[in-house]
């Protein structure tokens, strides 16, 4: 544990500007934070306020009518076919995506669909078990477990795999800039979107929302049985859509239950005592978001949509989301699993204890029961759960 933000002044004020920032954040509660005292009768009104504010914060564009998605090719695979499509969500934008359709699924035999959103720089092609989108694409860990879309289609459901912005085919000049586009490119994209009044999360959610709406029109998809399944970075647009689209059949969030505000409140200024630590990356930040909401509020506001969390989280945040689902009369619709390393309650030594201040990032993640090297898509949990929700 490192030193927390400190001041020696008797008036408690900070000479350090970062210290003043910490004063702003330290006791902050979002204006639309879930109140555990909320009654079941009051829950829908709170939920609607969250939905309205979130839509405002996402800064969705309002473009004129755009072309419908277009299929580029289709190829057979063992037990399914894979199709490549392009979406045109707003002027100037093209978003390719992959669709995997099980053999035997057609207009006479429609199937549920699962939209699959990858983690960080993991491209949609690897979600589908295909080759990288361009030569030299940097190898990501857990390729054998993160083939989410292929796991979904092999379980009898249509899978739709969409890249994160600035990832896969959506990078700038891969033939010359290569993997630098996955890092510096994402930073530049995020900061320039913020300067334009938008955000990386808002762009990601909007692009995926357009494809989600279109998928409901497919004659071989059951429109009332559409789910989202997301890993790591992909969980953020999934949380947004999970709130904005209450008609979804299910949502899988394959990451630990997080709070950006709690993290910032409890992390110290340095991880090593010598350098200011990296803060929450720009691509996670949404202008004005902390004033109103936090990520765990989005999960709470999804109730009663069936929700699966596969990588635990801090006990206090889990308690909050459980309470929200109970208030909504949907306690059984929420299922939470821990990392295998923390499946035994005896290993969760911080549960029930207050979170200290001045933590390093590693200490904070350990307090949240996060097993960082084993952060991968928990298909052995998620796929059977999706089958129960969508196939019955």
Molecular structure report:
This protein has 392 residues and is an alpha/beta fold. The chain has a single domain (17-390), classed as Rossmann fold, CATH 3.40.50.1820. Helix content is 34%, strand content 15%. It has a nine-stranded mixed β-sheet with strand order 1-2-3-5-4-6-7-8-9, with helices on both faces. Helix 7 crosses helix 8, helix 8 packs across helix 11 (295-301) and helix 11 runs parallel beside helix 12 (315-327). The longest helix has 16 residues, at 43-58. It is globular. The model has no long low-confidence stretch (mean pLDDT 96).
Largest sheet: 9 strands, mixed
- How large, in whole angstroms, is the Cα Rg? 21 Å
Q: Report the mean per-residue pLDDT as an integer.
A: 96
Cα shape: globular
Separation of the first and last Cα atoms: 48 Å
| Strand neighbour order, sheet with most strands | 1-2-3-5-4-6-7-8-9
CATH class: Alpha Beta
Helix content: 25-40%
Q: How many beta-strand elements?
A: 9
Named CATH topology = Rossmann fold
Corresponding CATH architecture: 3-Layer(aba) Sandwich
Low-confidence stretches: none
């Amino acid at each position: 544990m490192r030193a927390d933000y400190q001041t020696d002044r008797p008036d408690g004020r900070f000479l350090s500007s970062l210290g003043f920032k910490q004063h702003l954040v330290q006791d902050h509660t979002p204006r639309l934070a879930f109140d555990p005292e909320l009654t079941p009768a009051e829950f829908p009104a709170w939920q609607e306020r969250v939905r309205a504010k979130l839509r405002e914060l996402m800064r969705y564009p309002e473009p004129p009518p755009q072309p419908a998605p277009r299929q580029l090719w289709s190829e057979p695979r063992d037990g399914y076919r894979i199709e490549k499509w392009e979406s045109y969500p707003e002027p100037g934008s093209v978003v390719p995506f992959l669709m995997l359709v099980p053999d035997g699924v057609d207009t006479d035999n429609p199937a549920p669909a699962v939209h699959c959103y990858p983690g960080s720089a993991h491209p949609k092609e690897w979600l589908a078990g295909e080759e990288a989108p361009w030569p030299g694409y940097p190898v990501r860990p857990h390729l054998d477990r993160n083939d989410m879309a292929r796991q979904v289609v092999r379980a009898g459901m249509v899978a739709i795999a969409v890249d994160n912005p600035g990832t896969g085919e959506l990078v700038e000049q891969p033939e010359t800039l290569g993997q630098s586009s996955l890092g510096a490119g994402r930073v530049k994209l995020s900061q320039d979107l913020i300067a334009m009044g938008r955000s990386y999360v808002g762009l990601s959610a909007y692009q995926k929302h357009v494809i989600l709406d279109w998928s409901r029109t497919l004659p071989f998809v059951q429109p009332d049985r559409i789910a989202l399944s997301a890993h790591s970075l992909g969980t953020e647009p999934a949380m947004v859509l999970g709130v904005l689209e209450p008609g979804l059949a299910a949502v899988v969030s394959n990451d630990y239950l997080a709070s950006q505000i709690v993290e910032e409140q409890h992390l110290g200024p340095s991880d090593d005592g010598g350098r200011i630590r990296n803060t929450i990356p720009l691509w996670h930040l949404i202008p004005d978001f902390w004033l109103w909401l936090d990520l765990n509020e989005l999960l709470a506001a999804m109730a009663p949509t069936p929700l699966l969390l596969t990588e635990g989280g801090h006990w206090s945040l889990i308690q909050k989301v459980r309470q929200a689902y109970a208030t909504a009369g949907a306690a059984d619709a929420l299922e939470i699993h821990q990392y295998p390393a923390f499946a035994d309650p005896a290993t969760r030594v911080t549960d029930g204890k207050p979170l200290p201040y001045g933590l390093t990032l590693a200490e904070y993640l350990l307090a949240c029961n996060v097993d960082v090297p084993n952060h991968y898509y928990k298909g052995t949990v998620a796929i059977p759960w999706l089958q129960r929700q969508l196939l019955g």
